[in-house]
Amino acid sequence: MRLRGRKGIRENLEAQQDLVVLDPKQYKGRWKERFGNDRPIYVELGMGKGQFISGMSVKYPEVNFIGIDMYDELIRRGSEKAKIAWAQKLEVEVEEVQPPNLNLALGNIEFLEECFEPGELERIYLNFSDPWPKARHGRRRLTHPRFLDKYKQLLNENGEIHFKTDSQTLFEFSLNAFAACGLQMSDIALSLHRDGVNEKHVMTEYESKFHSQGMDIYRCEVMVGREALRRHEQRKMEQF
Amino acid sequence: MRLRGRKGIRENLEAQQDLVVLDPKQYKGRWKERFGNDRPIYVELGMGKGQFISGMSVKYPEVNFIGIDMYDELIRRGSEKAKIAWAQKLEVEVEEVQPPNLNLALGNIEFLEECFEPGELERIYLNFSDPWPKARHGRRRLTHPRFLDKYKQLLNENGEIHFKTDSQTLFEFSLNAFAACGLQMSDIALSLHRDGVNEKHVMTEYESKFHSQGMDIYRCEVMVGREALRRHEQRKMEQF
Fold first, then answer.
1. Residues of chain A with pLDDT under 70
2. Looking at residue A3, what is its pLDDT?
3. B140, B167, B175, B220: best to mutate for the A interface, most A CBs within 10 A
4. Mean pLDDT for all residues in chain A
5. Model's pTM, two decimal places?
6. Across the A/B interface, how many CB contacts are shorter than 8 Å?
7. Quick check: A190 and A216 in contact, CB under 8 A?
8. For a tag on chain B, would you pick the N or C end, based on fewer CB atoms within 10 A?
9. Which residues are registered as beta bridge partners of A184?
10. Is the Cβ–Cβ distance between B159 and B230 less than 8 Å?
């Protein structure tokens, strides 16, 4: 996407230090302290314009959310979106609002392990990640085994990865990567909104657009932590 | 499909007892004896008109193949197709040919365990199985966990299940069934012939038709036997 109007972005972001984290590495191991509570932390890797993470933070106030992106302009847009969403929910002015359970972090996912301690995260969302269609760029895909190994380290005993995309090739690659890494999948959907929009999940900007164009949205969950696997084991046959 | 001209079908089939098996239960535990050798046995459940199993038997003479269907008219058509395929390969007249590594069996997959001993099969092919789209018919789908449990019993230490379909809903159901049963998947394809026809696999009648209409063909392999899993473990990272 084209990112315009960069002048003044940094000043804007620096003025919102309760919501925006410009150097997430300094909070490694201290995110619960920063949020001021012990609630689980769900992270979206590549939050884009922030519709999903803002919507989720409003919908699930009992969870702490962190949206990460490497573009400061996206962090700025995300912060606007988040404040508008929370102002609506709390019925206050946008200027007065402070989303209590959301942080937007400027960071490169390549260095994720420098931002979080092992076990510090409970869920990782990957939404409409760059498919990197050329085979020689396969290592950059966020579901490549080298990233899955990192996620496994960072997730806690309830850890799960929730992945959705419109890209058939990325989804195919990802299913094979999860399988090759011995990860337990569940709730695999090859057309998430086949029977109408699935309201259980907040839609991303891309998702709204692609779904309205009649494209399939692919989704799957991956159980990583010991407790997540145990719960999956108990309920897995209910669907049959 | 409409099945016409049933008159005389039984007589036709009874006259081909080297190729056609009208009562497969009598060979339970004795299929190697029937084939006269110790080669692995690959079975197609629901062989339809027989293009796939005929083509496979010609392509892989070192394997014994059994095609199963519950309709005698399909067994008859399959026997014609098989003889034509083998006559072409051997450059003899159709009347003179006897496919050496192929049997076509009349049988109901519900009673599969009455036709084969545990460990008697090395591979099961499920090609374009009936998707049974209504939820209440889910138990009839050939990838339902109740069937997967049977297949696990019947497959040997090299055992694999190879599944393809044009049905997005059946493929979705099946991936979830494989995952829920803790089965190791590999080679998942959401559009098997995306980059042109994949010559590695013999096409079925449905596959040729649907592919020519631009539809996606879904495919996946499932490693069941101990040795199949070990080989998968060794090569699984090569794709990344």
1. 1-7
2. 53
3. B175
4. 94
5. 0.94
6. 67
7. yes
8. N
9. A223
10. no
Is residue B216 among the annotated active site residues?
no
Beta pairing class for A121-127 and B121-127: unpaired
User: Hey, what are A95's tokens?
Assistant: 């200027």
Name which of B129, B87, B131 is nearest B109 in CA terms.
Answer: B129
- Identify residue A63 by its one-letter amino acid code: V
Q: Please count the CA atoms within 13 angstroms of the CA of A227 that sit on its side-chain side.
A: 8
CA distance B20 to B16: 6
Categorize the per-residue pLDDT at B87 as very low, low, confident or very high, splitting at 50, 70 and 90: very high
pLDDT in tens, B27-69: 999 999 999 999 999 999 999 999 999 999 999 999 999 999 9
- Could you report the predicted ipTM of this complex, rounded to two decimals? 0.92
Which residues of A fall below an 8 Å CB-CB distance to B? Answer: 138-139, 144-145, 168-169, 171-172, 175-177, 179-180, 182, 184-191, 194, 216, 236-237, 239-240
Contact check, Cβ <8 Å, B180/A144: no
Does the beta-carbon distance from A138 to B240 stay under 8 Å?
Answer: yes
Half-sphere exposure of A155 (CA within 13 A, CB side): 27
